[in-house]
Amino acid sequence: MAKFKGVREAFAAALTDLAVEGKDVYGVFPDSLSAMRAIAFGEKFPERYVECGIAEQCAVDVAAGMATTGAIPFVGSYAGFLTMRAGEQMRTFVGYTELNVKFAGFNAGCMGGEREGVTHQFYEDIAFVSSLPNFKIFTPADGNQMYHAVKIAADIVGPVYLRGGSGKEPTVFPEDAPFSPDGITVCKDYGTDAVILSCGHVLDRVIAAADLLKAQGINVTAADINILYGDNPAKILEVMAKTNLVVTVEDHNINGGLGSYISRLATENRPVRVKRIALEDYSESGAAKDLGDKEGFSPENICAVVAKTLGK
Amino acid sequence: MEVNLKEMCRTVREDILTMIHAAGSGHPGGSLSSVEIMVALYFGDVMKVDAKNPDWNDRDRFILSKGHVAPVLYSVLARKGFFPVEELGTLRKFGSILQGHPHKAHTPGLECSAGSLGQGLSVANGIALAFKKLGTGQRVYCLMGDGELQEGQIWEAAMFAPQQKLDNVCAIVDYNHVQLDGTVEEIKSLDNLPARWNDFGWNVIEVDGHDVNALVHAFKLAALTKDRPSVLIAHTVKGKGVSFMEGDCNWHGNCPNAEQLAQALAEVRGATS
Predict the structure, then answer these.
(1) Domain containing B201: what range?
(2) Could you give the 3-state DSSP secondary structure of residue A48?
(3) Do residues A147 and A28 both lie within one domain?
(4) What residues 4-63 of chain B have any CB closer than 8 A to a CB of chain A?
């Protein structure tokens, strides 16, 4: 297994390992090879590296065409350049036709695009992709999870959207922790005063919040949601059933992401109060920590939201 | 099976008019301008396909980029034997295998969805690239409208194919000069169209888009071209074969009533060439 650090190197490492294993994978890049940390992949497998130039719409449809012949193309770029600029291509030529194309969208969230500013931060991608039938949405929290998510995506027949941030996110999962097929991994199980659910690179903050709350006598469960709008949310519902307060934390707009998904699960299955911490405006340039804190993702704020909502 | 190509063109024109009338809506203008192109591809010994085995692995591929001319494609596929001709009467109706704009899952002989303009050439490039990597000799054909060349993605694809030396791609522009709201010239002109493609690195072949034998010859010339893709610029007339539709943007997406249908069919049947 190739060495990697963070979600981007993990993506490239998994793609490389898939090619080594003989999978018919291709990397389709709209001038994003280096941004995807995939230069080594391109050097090792030049025949599996497809350069489309700065042309995301073309790249997505080229991948669609390749998939009709049995190839497994991975299109890697920034989340919004795929899901917004080439969103219709993803819908009409991949989703509708159920083609076996995989998408890796990086710079997701304000912390994913950080210093680049709003043009290169994307907090709308899940809202869009979740409205496309046939797509699966994977939100790995760190590099180790991304590596496994890419490997699993390659084995699925049909479109998969993988969401990643900057690649500088903290590592939370051990290398060999599986990418949960249940869509949920419980990271802290201190109690059921509240359940805090997050997706993606804010997981370390949620875990820290659970520890802070414990010190205050509030015992919560903290869990990572790694598959959104999946086919079988039974395990997520099982965890949600233990509490009267669910708090969601996500580096995405408050509409259409994790909070929307969990609210839907709650209203359709077992009504429970859902408090959402997410973006409600465009962000700005800055260090990931500062941006995340501003949006309410600091452990202290998550902690305060839980305590206040519980009336403590 | 020896097919009289001109006779087939007449039949396809009748199908187009009849099916759009039965559907109550559709796009006759661009369907009629593409008839000879489509007949040349499917009946002129140009494309390798097997109607009895639509998913035959070694087939050549046809990508319809201007998906609104589904009627001409459906007619040609039906006449080729991909599905019964009777299905043409179900166009655009609930439960039909013939969607208003094409979709692979519904109709035998299709490769993908089509209709959102500007995208087909990118898909064709992807298929052609995969064929190159597989080392098969299969060719990929892509029919575009002239109006849709106003879409930016066309030119993304126009840069991609020469860069990748995709000589197994043959694009066709149905250059009928008319789009939904008027003429291409008044809306966004394509002046010097052959030069534009040539500048992008394509082998350009200009051809009379209503001379089916000339089209067959042009496709064969394209197939002989190495190391770069070819584009046929087919000079055509929107609504070809029906006097009151010819060159009129109002027939881009309008349905003939019974009287208009009768006149149109009479003109098509009476045509000598």
Answers:
(1) 5-270
(2) helix
(3) yes
(4) 61, 63
With residues binned 3-state (H G I as helix, E B as strand, rest as coil), the percentages for chain A, rounded to 5, are 40, 20, 40
pLDDT digits (tens, 9 = 90+) for A254-300: 999 999 999 999 999 999 999 999 999 999 999 999 999 999 999 99
3-state secondary structure of B72: helix
Is B69 in contact with B180 (CB distance < 8 Å)? Answer: no
Place of tokens 């949920």: A184
SS3 of residue B175 by DSSP:
strand
Contact call for residues A246 and A262 (beta carbons, < 8 A): yes
- For B114-157, the pLDDT digits (tens) are 889 999 999 999 999 999 999 999 999 999 999 999 999 999 99
Q: What is the mean pLDDT of chain A?
A: 97
Pair A155, A118 in one domain? yes
Contacts of residue B159 in chain A, CB cutoff 8 Å? Answer: 53, 55
Residue whose tokens read 């519902």: A237
Chain A interface with B: residues with Cβ < 8 Å = 47, 50-53, 55, 57-58, 60-71, 73, 88-89, 92-93, 96-99
B272 confidence band (pLDDT: 50, 70, 90): low
CB A249 within 8 Å of CB A257: no
Contacting B residues, span 62-81, partner chain A, CB-CB under 8 Å: 63
CATH code of the domain covering residue A226? 3.40.50.920
Q: What is the dihedral of CA B154, B156, B162, B163, to 10 degrees?
A: -170
CA dist B171 and B93 (Å) reads 31
Instruction: For chain B, give the longest Cα–Cα distance.
Output: 53
Q: How distant is the Cα of A11 from the closest Cα of chain B, in angstroms?
A: 22
Q: Give the end of a domain, one of A96, A131, A163.
A: A163
Dist. CA A201–CA A106, nearest whole Å = 12
| Secondary structure element (H or E) that encloses residue A138, with its range | strand A136-138
Structurally, chain A folds into a number of domains equal to: 2
Q: Provide the number of structural domains found in chain B.
A: 1
Domain with residue B113: its CATH number is 3.40.50.970
User: In the structure encoding, which two tokens stand for residue A248, read together?
Assistant: 């969601």
Residue B47 has what DSSP assignment? S
What is the maximum alpha-carbon separation in chain A?
60
SS3 for A189? Answer: strand
| Domain range enclosing A282 | 184-309
| Helices assigned H by DSSP within A21-97 | 39-44, 56-67, 79-80, 87-88
Rounded Cα gap, residues A58 and B204, in angstroms = 21
Distance CA B70, CA B16 (A): 9
Cβ–Cβ below 8 Å for B123 and A69: no
Asked if the model's pLDDT at residue B273 lies above 80, the reply is no
Calculate the average pLDDT of chain B: 96
Angle between helices B5-23 and B35-43 (to 10 degrees): 120
The alpha carbon of residue A152 is apart from the nearest alpha carbon of chain B, in Å, by 23
Chain B residues whose CB is inside 8 A of the A69 CB are 127, 130-131, 134
Summarize pLDDT for B42-88 with one digit per residue, the tens. Answer: 999 999 999 999 999 999 999 999 999 999 999 999 999 999 999 99
Residues A71 and A148 in one domain: yes
